[in-house]
Amino acid sequence: MRFNPISIRTGQAEERATLEDLQRRASLANPGDRETLLAHPDAISLPEAFLAAGQVHVAERGGAIVGFTVIRPRDDGDYELEGLFVEPEQWRTGVGTALITHVTEIARSAGANGVVTIGNDDALPFYVAFGFGRIGTAETRFRPAPLLRLDIP
Fold it and tell me: Which domains, ranges and CATH numbers included, belong to the chain?
């Protein structure tokens, strides 16, 4: 199956509800997150401040939004990947890889040496395949999760 190319742009404030709906679909498709998120629907949110600051990057394919990411600078000079969400029917089609590549380019151009993220067990193989390594464990609202870092050469 051939897919249209992926383009990535900065998210817009008026897309907030659309992106939160995408986040909900992607999160509920992860078996390890489903029960918790159904019990705590407030956990799905995209702060307006992230959009206003230009920290949300949207992937489109054929004019349709197929994923997005949130990346923010950290005090230590690295960047934090605060969210990566892809429409479930677009999983394994290159959207996540395109978003991580885009995030890496943003961090590199800002002079960062790495990108840090809190992964979940369902997404861990994706992050490891991209080159993220485990640097510890982070306490999240619901449970401990792998803390990962991608070195930027």
Answer: 6-151 (3.40.630.30)
